[in-house]
Amino acid sequence: MNTNSTVEYLKNQIDKPFTHSISPSTLLLGGTLRHIGVGEAWVDYPIKHDLTNPIGMIQGGFLAALIDDTIGIAFFSMEPKLMFTTTNLNVNYLFGARKGEVVRAKANVIRMGKKIANFECKVFNSKGEVIASSTTNLVVTTVKAMLFSDFQSQIK
Question: I want to staple 123 with a disulfide (CB 3.0 to 4.6 A). Which of 84, 112, 115, 132 is the partner?
């Protein structure tokens, strides 16, 4: 696949924790980009105390959030002209992750249409075992998409 200005910008962010983002939830989750390509992203997320349930495991909603976040990065890497929004997010919870662990989410596009985009994402623990798998559909909106390169010019 061809690269673009968003991928080039994000390649400079590899192995650095997100400190700036067009998405506030990215900052909350505290991920570190590990790989970017057109239509794909890998992000490591530390399981922080604030993301856990009473037994010290990642709460399911936060696991879904980090999946959605990673899919969003993969989506933006395709430099869409219009924003899309998640219409469904199907998550298979296979195993948990404890506070202090780092999980890796790997998202990629299955199909990018004019009106609907389909992505998949898998989350792995430090042993490389899949702890969650997901598919999602995104639908086009009328909102103009922001490019990461545009966001970069806003950082002071």
Answer: 132
Taking the whole predicted model, whether its pTM rises above 0.70 is answered as yes
Q: Are 99 and 89 in contact (CB under 8 A)?
A: no
Q: Which residue has the tokens 């909102």?
A: 143
Helix residue ranges, H only, 12-130: 24-29, 60-76
Element containing residue 8 per DSSP (H, E): helix 5-11
Domains of the chain: 5-148 (3.10.129.10)
pLDDT digits (tens, 9 = 90+) for 90-106: 999 999 999 999 999 99
What's the pLDDT score for residue 156? Answer: 43
What value, to the nearest 5°, has the Cα angle with vertex 112 and ends 45 and 21?
35
Listed as ranges, residues in the chain with pLDDT below 70 are 1-3, 147-156
CA angle in degrees (0–180, nearest 5) for 148-152-154: 120
Which one, of 49, 125, 40, 122, lies nearest residue 74 by Cα? 40
Strand (E) positions, the chain? 32-37, 40-46, 82-93, 102-112, 116-124, 130-144
